Amino acid sequence: MARIAGWVGAGLLLCVAILAIYGYGQVVSLDVARITDDVHVIYGLGGNVGVLRSDAGSVIVDTMTFPMQGRELRERARAIAGPVQAVVNTHHHSDHTHGNPAFAAGLPVISTAKTRAYLDAVDAEFWQGEAAKTLPGQTFEDSHTLEVGGKTVRLLHPGPGHTDGDLVALFVEDRVLHTGDLFFNGRYPNIDLEAGGSVQEWSATIDRVLALDFDHVIPGHGPVTDADGLRDFQRFMQQLAAVGEEAARTGRSLVDTQGRATLDADAGYEVLAIPFVMRLDRDFVLRRAWEEATGNFERIQIPGGE
Ligand SMILES: [Zn+2]
What we know:
By secondary structure, this protein is of the alpha/beta class. Helices cover 37% and strands 23% of the residues. The radius of gyration is 21 Å and the shape is globular. It binds zinc ion (ZN). The site of zinc ion has 5 residues, from loops.
């Protein structure tokens, strides 16, 4: 009996080990794709990462979800574009920032001031000890230009949408734009009303992004595309805003709003499900549109926030 129990135990242990190795493999598995000679995108578990090569090393936009991914990203960036000279965080969500601690303390880490304030307000537990040294230390309100090794990176906060602190990063010479989560390509977006996100204002914010000069777009999630791809997403956000407006005007309930909504710009959109955390699907975005229009949500308080 004891011997059988021993074998069962060993078998279980082996299963757990295999699962752990598989899980680790999933987490650190990255796909690198070239966009121009000097700009690459890295896809993985979390937000898309942009890597710019300059004569002085690389600039990386966003760092995915886990410090161990950050280490992997750091090495990939070094291999394709030289040692990382600066890190940009498009916004505060963990799937775009939690790889930061893998980068050297003292490296410039840049975000908007609001993004930094949200990190301090809602994610302080993660940013303890050594990790705190890789919080964004250079912040700005509206725009900021970064010059590295003959390349220009223009950072712009175009307005509220996904949160009210997002930035987009334009690799000027290469005409590539990283939008962060202001653009989910072919999938339902997360809408962080609590951090100032807005269905109603998102489309006007995209107008300001479309005024920039670029050929290629790296979205926060989904495949690389162009301005037309971004315009398709804008049309979806306009439809969603109309649903919210109508719900507010007619006093429609949430269930009614979800049942009757006349969205069709989401045809073919992928659902992103993170077990026990969130499910980004049609019901989710309709709920957010309704909650914003009817005021059924609560803002995170940050210093200087409205
Ligand atoms: Zn996000």
